[in-house]
Amino acid sequence: MQITFLGTSSGVPTRSRNVSSIALRLPQRAELWLFDCGEGTQHQILRSDLKVSQLSRIFITHLHGDHIFGLMGLLASCGLAGNVERVDIYGPSGLNEYLQAASRYSHTHFSYPIKVHTIQPGIIYEDDEFTVTCGLLHHRITAFGYRVAEKDRAGRFDVEKAKALQIPSGPIYGQLKRGETVTLEDGSVIDGSQLCGPTEIGRKFVYCTDTVYCDGAVQLAQDADVLIHEATFAHQDADMAFQRLHSTTTMAAQTAYLAGVNRLIMTHFSPRYAPGNAIELKDLLREARAIFPNTIMAHDFMVYDVPRRREVILN
C-alpha cells in the first residue's frame, strides 16, 4: 500500500499545493484507488509516477467543489485515452446526479463503464484482500471518512521443512499454507500452522476530511497504521474551525491519540499559514506533535509506504 498526495491545500490551490486528492497504489494487483478529486487532479497525476490506466476506484468524501471539481475532467480524459477498463465511484447522495448533469451538458460520452455507488455508513466494498468502510464525519454538508483494511495473510510457507517431513507436494501444500491440519496417507497428522511463519497482519489506512473533531472520526480510525486527517487551522484559530466545521491541528492530533493510530499525516492546510505570516505550517506541526508525536505534514507529491505493524517505529 503506497499513498501519493496529489493535493494538500484547503479551499483553493496555491503555487505549491493543489486542492484535495490522494492516491492509494496497490502494487500487488496493479490498481490505483483515488480519494477525492479536486480541480487539477489529472494534471497532478501526470506529474507523478502514477499510471492513470490502473485507476479502478474513486472514493469521494463530500460534494464541495475543492473535492470534486476535477472528477469530470479526469473521467473524460480516461475515456479519450482508452486505457481504463472500468471505474467504480463511491460517494454521498447527489454525486451520481452531479456527474450525469455534467456529462449531459458537456456532451461527454464515456467509452468505458462507470458505476456510481451511493454510500451509507458501513462496509461499502469487500474482496479477498481488502475491506473498505465509510463513516459519517461532521461538516457543513454530508461528509464521509474512509477506512481501507487489508485482510490478514498467512505467514510464509516453509517448503524445505515440508520436504524434510516427506510431505508430498501438490494440493496438500495449499491446505498447509492456509494453516489447515492434514492427515497424510501414512497416518501422520501435520499442523499447517507449524510450517508457516507469523501471520502478516493486514494494514489499515484511514482518510478523514472535511470535518471538525467528532467521535465518528475516532471510531473510524481505531488502531489504524496511518490516519490522514485534515488540519485546516492552527489551534489559536479554533473559533473559526468550529464555525466552518473544519479541524485544527490539535483536533487531528487528539483524534489520532484517542484512536491509537501509529502515524498521523496532516493535510488540507489553509493558505493563510504561508511562509512569512504570523503563523506558519511549521507551527502547525509543532502543535500537533505536542499531543501526538508521531505526526508528519503532507505536501504535494509526497509518497508514503504504509508499513506493516511490526515494521512501524515511532519517531
From TrEMBL:
Active-site positions on this chain: D66 (proton acceptor)
GO terms assigned for molecular function: 3'-tRNA processing endoribonuclease activity; identical protein binding; zinc ion binding
UniProt enzyme class: hydrolase
HAMAP family in UniProt: RNase_Z_BN
One Pfam family linked to the record: Anti-Pycsar_Apyc1
Catalytic activity: Endonucleolytic cleavage of RNA, removing extra 3' nucleotides from tRNA precursor, generating 3' termini of tRNAs. A 3'-hydroxy group is left at the tRNA terminus and a 5'-phosphoryl group is left at the trailer molecule
Organism: Anabaena cylindrica (strain ATCC 27899 / PCC 7122)
Keywords: Endonuclease, Hydrolase, Metal-binding, Nuclease, tRNA processing, Zinc
Protein's UniProt name: Ribonuclease Z
